[in-house]
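Page 47, continued from p. 46.
Same chain as before, 245 aa.
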Amino acid sequence: MKISALLIARNEQHIIKDCLESLSFADEIIVILDRSVDDTASICKKYTRKIFSGSWNCEGERRNYGIKKCSNGWIFEIDADEIVSKSLNNEILKKKKLTNFDFFYIKLINYVGDRPLKYGWMGCMAPDGKFCMFKKNAKKWSKGLVHPNYDLVGKKGPGFKNFIIHKMSKNISDLVKRFNRNTTLYSKELKLKNQNHSVSLRKVISRFVKSFFKRKGYKHGKLGFLISIFNAIYPLISIIKSKEN
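Result:
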């Protein structure tokens, strides 16, 4: 069974080349460009002709559109700031032969600059892993502006030994921008729901404890502390933003 690499991107000219070059396992590459105005499209044309441009306010709808555009039985979903290593590439080729399974979970190693974050909880910043390899009809995204949920149908396959390399942020300033973007998007979701939302001090503390102590974020020192703070106040900041005009 052949495999399609599904790449979602928006104004990613500075990083998308590394991602595209790591997709040698794919029988086709599908690129979904969302409101891109930089040179992302011209870079992608060197690797694939299957480029679809549009405008989506909802991440879930954008990803479901991309899934429909894939022509192969297997789909490997990836973002422009992610890279498939050679060892993961080989493992994907082996796993796609296991056609009695419908989806696979792959862990991520998130990077800030050149520093891999192997401890802690990314929470609002990035996932620890995801079901990104699946049969075409096995996954459907729900509506959501940032990190929406999805439904899976079928049988889960064995876990991967190798990781996806996620270039989460170039530096601390970029990390702060990521936090600001995610809280803004989530605040819009809260406003659309038009419900009264609140967060307790206990929840803020428990999120910090989970990130810094239980998941051992302290092993990354000051950076681990900063990420734990972001995770702790994420719901609070999002609620405050949702009440702004």
